[in-house]
C-alpha cells in the first residue's frame, strides 16, 4: 500500500473536520439555529475519507441523505457547507439544497440525495460519461445497507457490470436502516455477495479502519480506472448518533453503541496506528485539530453574518438558459 | 363525546379501529412497527419516523409489518395482497417517494379492476405525508396528490384537521378501491376536537367551513387554515367569504364547488402544490365550464411557484401560499 | 415423482391447447381479424403446464405480456379467452383487457401484465395473503429473463425471502428480451444464482421437458406450502415465434431456432417419453388433439358471433361500489 | 428543399443530425441498436420496437446503446451522464413505463439544477411513445405527459406532424434542460413534408394551423388532426375555427392561447389524455384567469373519460376524442 505523510495528514484532517463539523451542527440544532432533516455521518468517517483519498479531482462521487462526510472527503469547502445548512445565499447551493441535497459538482460531488438509492444510477451515469468520453475518471457511489434493497441498486449494478463501467459501489453497512436492523431486512450476512448477481468484483473492508478502506478502495478504483470494471465494496461501519438529529435511539442497545464508540472510533484507530508506526506525530495531529476547530468556528461566524436568499428568487434556476 | 387530539393521534386511532374491526386489515411500511426494538419492551416505541403508528404492533402483533426500504416492493406487494383478500394499509413515508413506486399504483392498483372486466377489488390504502413547511426541501416536501388524482382508478383524499383525518382514513380503508390518504405536513401539528369511537367521513364530500356571499375560497389540506385566516382578515374589512375544504380530490365534490360559486360569483382556489396540471386548474376549469353562468370575475389560483421546494426558511415561506397571497388574489377580482 | 394418468393427460391437453390456440391466433391476426400487441408462448408450454400441474385451485399465478400459456395452464376457459382477444363483451375481461392484460382471478390467474416485472410484486402480495390468512395457498410468479433486470424483481424476492412467503418465482429464460440476447444484458450464466442475494432456494429446470419442470416445480411448491420459504426456479426455454406477432426475427440465427423447434419441442418430448414409458398411449393423445381442435374451433365460432361491448360502458368498472 | 417523410423517419433524421453535429450526444434504450444482430450484418435492422432508430448504430458505433429492461437504471444513468458531460437521448419505449422510472425524472433530472443552486445542467432528452389507437390497451396506451408537464424543471413537447417532430426533437436535444419528447401513436402513421437539413422548432411556441374568428380549437399531438377535421366540417356550415397546435406543453405558449381566445371569445380544448389534472384544465384555467375579459362562452374540454384505455376496438374508439365530439362541444357553446 502506498501513502505519504501529506496524504495521511490530509485524510486525518478530513476525518477530523467531519467529526467537528457535525459536533457543531448538533449544537446549532439544539440551540434552534438550524432546521430541516439532518442525518449525521459521525463514526463512519473512515469510509468516505478512505475512499476519497484514492480519488482525483476529476472523479465523481454520489452520496445519500447522510452526506456531510462525503462532501468534506471530496473536498467541498466547509464554509460553503455551513452557510448552506444555515440557509444562506452564500451556501454552496445558495440555500436551496440544505443538508439532504448538499452538492458541489465542481468538486465532483454529485449531491447528497433525499431518495434512498437514487445516487446509484447517477454514479453509473457519471461512469458512462467517463467511459464514452475517455476522461479517465472513476465514479463512486456511496450508499447505505438499506439502499441495497432498492431497485435502483439492482438495475444500476447490472448495467455497470454489463458495460464494464469505471465505477465503484461503496455500501456503508452501518447495521441499520432508520430503526430497523439490517438483518431484519437483508437475509444475507455480507451484502458484498450481492455482487455475484452481476458477476461483479466485490470486497469487504473494516469501515472503522481508514487503512483498510484506503487499501481496498484503492484496488477497486485502480481496477475501474484501468478498464477492469466495477466493484461492490462493502464497508462495515456504525453511526455514532441516531438516524437523524433527535432520534431517541430506543431500537439499539446502549452496550452495542458504547462498544463501537469506545473501541472502534475511526479517528482514534487512525491515530493509534499512525503514532505506533511513526507515520505521523502527535503534535502534527493536534495542530490539525486546532486548525479544524478554527476553520469551523470561522465558517459558523461567516454563515451567521451572511445574507439570506432573496425570496424573489424562489423560482430562479429551475431551468438553464439554453443556447438554442 | 369528543376530545382534543393531535392529527397524528387521530390517524393512529383510526388505524387502531380499522385493525380492530376487520381482521383483514394489515399495516406495512418502513419502521411502522418500530424496527429494532422488536425483541425489547420498546417494540413499537418509534411507530414510524413520525410516530404515527406507535403502539399498534403491540395491540395487533403479526399485522403491523416493518419492511425493507423497497417502495416498489411494498406498494406492489400491498396491491397483490389487496387483490387476494387482505385490506392493506401501506405507508409511503413521504409522498415524494412516489417516484420509486408509481407503477404498482398507476398500472396495477388503478387498472386491475377495469382490465379484469370488473372481476376484482383492490381495497388498498396508501398513507403518505405530503407538502412543505418543515424545511425538508426539494425531495421531502412535495404535494404530488395531483398525480394520484389524475389517475383513473385511484381515489385521493387530504384532510385538513384531526377529526376529518380519522373519519376519512376509516372511509379510505373500508373503501373497496385504492385510496391515497395524504397527511399534509402543514396540518400535522394541529390538534382539534375528535369524536370518540368509530365514524366515517364519506369520500367525495367537501366541507363548507365558513359561509359568506362575497367570494369563494377553496382550499385543501394545509391551505384550508390559510383560507380561514384570509377569510377572517377579509371579514374585518367587510368581505364575507365562503370557505370550502375539498377534503376529497378524487372523487371531487363538483356540486359543492358550483353551489359556492353560484352564491358568490367569484372564486380563489388555494393549493400548496405546483401550478401546472393541478387541482387548482381543475377547479377553475370546472367553473368556466359548468359554472360559467355564475362567474362574475376571473377565477384566481394561488399555488406554489413552478419550482422545486427550497430549503432555506425564507425561501420556503415565500414558496408556500399564505393568507396575504389569498387576500391579494381576492383584491385582484376587483 | 408422483403422477397419474389423469394428470398427465390433462397436462398434455393443456400444452396442446396452448399450441393450437396460438396457431389459431396467428391465422386470425394474419387475416386481420384480431388486433393489438400479441406475444406468443409456443415453445414454452412445458413451463407453464409443468408448474401449474402442481398447483391447486386456490393457488395464484401472475403472468407477463406473454400470458396465454399461463392462463390455459391455470385453467382459464379457452372460450372466454378467445372472446377476449376478439374484443367481445363475452370475453373473460369483457373485452377490456386483451392479450396483454388477460386475467381471471376466479381461476387464481392474476393477469398477464403489460409491464415487465410487474407481476412479481403481485405474486408476493398473494403469498403474503396466503401466509397471514393461513389459507395454505401458494403463489407463483412467471416472468422472463429480461424481467430479472427490473427493480421489482429484486425488491420482491428480498421481501419474500425475509418473510419466508409461500411463493415460487419462475423465470422463463428463453434467451432473449425482445431482440436482445440474454447474455448481452445479464452477465451471469444462470439467472438462478440471483437467488443468493436473498438467501433464497433456487433450482434450474429444462424448460422444454415437462417432466423436469413438473418435478422441480413440485419440490419448490411443496417447500413453499410447508413453510420452507420461496424458491427461484429458472426454466431454460425458447420461444418458437418472434417476440411479437410480426417480428422479422433477424436477430437470431435460423439454425439456432430450427434446432430448438425440431429437436426440443416440449410437446414431442412429452409424447416420446409418455409413449416410451407406457404412461399414455398414442390413441389417447390423438383423441386429445382432436378435442382441442374442436374446442378452439368452437371458441372462435362463439367469439365471432358474440356481441361487441357497448361503447357507453367505456368507463364502467373503473371503481368498485363500496359498502361504506 | 423538403420531401414527404413518415413521422418515425423524421425522428430518425433528427437523431442522425444530432449525433452528427455533437459528439456528446448518445442514444440509449431497449433495443435501440437492434439487439442480437450485433455480430451479423443486420446489426440495427430492428432499431427499437417501432424501428425509429434504424441505421443509427451503424453510422455512430459505440454511441447507440442497447440496455437491459431496466427503466430506472436507463433514465437514472442518463441523468447522471447528462450532469457530467454527455447529452443523452434515452428511449422510454412506451410512456406508460413512466411508473418504473419516475424518480430519476421527478426527483433528480428535474431538481438537480435547482438544488445545486444553479450549478449544473442536465441536457437530457427522453423520447417516448404515448397515447392510444393501436389496441395496445391499458398499460401501453396512456398519455401521461400531464405528469411530466406538471413537474417543475422538466420540459415536455408533443409534435403533431413529421416536420415538427424533427425540429422539436433537435431543439429538445440541444436544450440544456431535461425534455420529454412524446411521439403520439395517433400521428406515428402520418407522413408529411419535412425540410431537409438541420433546423429547429423552438420549445414553447404553439402553431396556429388554421385561422377563423368564430371559435378556438386547441389540440396537441394526435388531437391536432382531430381539430383540423372538425374545423373543416364546421367550415362547411359556416363556422370558422382557429386551430392551435400547442406543440409544447411546458413551457406553454400562453400568449398564443390568449390571443386566439381574444379573437374568437370561445374555446374547445381537445386532449386524448384523461380529464383530471391535465393540459385541458390548465388551458381552461388560463382562459378564466388572464383571458376572462375575452370569454363569451364556457370553455369546453374534450378528453378521454376518467378511465383506463380499453382493448376492444369499439371501446377504444369511444374512448378517444373524435371530430364529432369536438363539433358537439362547439355546438354546446350555443
Ligand atoms: C426511497 C426512500 N425511501 C425511504 C426513505 C426514508 N429514509 C431516509 S434514510 C432511510 C434509511 C436508510 O438506510 P441506509 O440506506 O442503511 O442508510 P443509513 O441511514 O443507515 O446511512 C430511510 C428509510 C427515503 N429517504 N427514500
Ligand atoms: C417496464 C417495461 N419495459 C419494457 C417493456 C417492453 N417489453 C415488452 S416484452 C419485453 C421483453 C421481455 O423480455 P423477457 O422478460 O425475457 O420476456 P420474454 O418476452 O422473453 O418472454 C419488453 C422489453 C415493457 N412491457 N415493460
Ligand atoms: Mg444503514
Ligand atoms: Mg426472455
Task: Provide structural commentary.
The complex is a heterotetramer, with two copies of chain A (324 residues) and two copies of chain B (334 residues). The mean pLDDT of chain A is 96. The termini of chain A are far apart. In chain A, 43% of the residues lie in helices and 10% in strands. With 324 residues, chain A is an alpha/beta fold. With 334 residues, chain B is α/β, with parallel strands linked by helices. Helices cover 36% and strands 20% of the residues of chain B. In chain B, strand 13, helix 11 and strand 14 form a beta-alpha-beta unit. Chain B starts with a strand and ends with a helix. In chain B, 71% of the residues are buried. The mean pLDDT of chain B is 96. Chains in contact: A-B, A-C, A-D, B-C, B-D, C-D. Chain A binds chain B through residues 35-37, 84, 87-88, 91, 93, 95-98, 100-101, 113-117, 146-147, 149-152, 176-181, 184-186, 248, 250-252, 308-309, 311-315, 318, and chain B through 30-31, 34-38, 40, 42, 45-46, 49, 66-73, 96-97, 99-100, 134-140, 305-308, 310-315, 317-319. One magnesium ion (MG) binds at residues 144-146, 174, 176-177 of chain C.
Task: Give the tags.
heterotetramer; A: 324 residues; alpha/beta; five-stranded parallel sheet; two-stranded antiparallel ribbon; 11 helices; 10% strand; globular; B: 334 residues; seven-stranded mixed sheet; five-stranded mixed sheet; 13 helices; 36% helix; binds thiamine diphosphate; binds magnesium ion
